[in-house]
Design brief:
It contains seven helices and four strands, in the order E-H-H-E-H-H-E-H-H-E-H. The chain is an alpha+beta fold. The protein has one domain: Nucleoside diphosphate kinase-like domain (Alpha-Beta Plaits, 2-Layer Sandwich). It is globular and about 40 Å long. The structure holds ribavirin triphosphate and magnesium ion. The site of ribavirin triphosphate has 9 residues, from strand 4. Its cofactor is Mg(2+). It is found in: Cytoplasm. Keywords: ATP-binding, Cytoplasm, Kinase, Magnesium, Metal-binding, Nucleotide metabolism, Nucleotide-binding, Phosphoprotein, Transferase. Homotetramer.
């Protein structure tokens, strides 16, 4: 077990629906520490860097448009195995398939749109976390 950091985004759907506090509550209730938090509007540069792995996929432009559609909250979380742990709290990417008890399973649903709007993002590996923290919180880059 290692103490590590993860980059979480409460996406614009979560912001619009007033679920930011609920997501933060679940993170804190799990025992993870909030290291940094910023309510912000993503720049095109941030989104291009953040979603570089998805460039060229059919959902890429709808995803960037969705992530540009309003404020989001970027959060750095710290804790033992919090990268895997938060992915577990978040649940499956598709909110219709996400298990009850997870953020996406309890709070997300399929709105029949061009891209899955699933409330949260969480880093998927230590390498992704370091890369994403540098995008959203340059002052914390390691
Ligand atoms: P995230 O990166 O946001 O934590 O989600 P993830 O790892 O579970 O999913 P990923 O495959 O990395 O996809 C990034 C985000 O793109 C949107 N997406 N929509 N077919 C679709 O409608 C579709 N596929 C992906 C979701 O918002 C997903 O979280
Ligand atoms: Mg991902």
């Amino acid at each position: 077990m290692t103490t590590e950091r993860s980059l979480i985004l409460v996406k614009p759907d979560g912001y619009r629906r007033g679920l930011t506090g609920e997501v933060l509550r679940r993170i804190e209730a799990k025992g993870y520490t909030l290291v940094a938090l910023d309510v912000t509007s993503a720049t095109q540069e941030q989104l291009a860097a953040h979603y570089a792995e998805h460039e060229g996929k059919p959902f890429y432009q709808p995803l960037v448009d969705f992530m540009s559609s309003g404020p989001l909250t970027a959060v750095v979380v710290e804790g033992e195995d919090c990268i895997r742990g938060f992915r577990s709290l978040a649940g499956a990417t598709n909110p219709t398939e996400a298990a009850p008890g997870t953020i996406r399973g309890d709070l997300g649903r399929d709105w029949g749109l061009k891209v899955q709007q699933n409330i949260v993002h969480g880093s998927d590996s230590p390498e992704s976390a370091a890369r994403e923290i540098a995008i959203w919180f340059p002052r914390l880059a390691s």
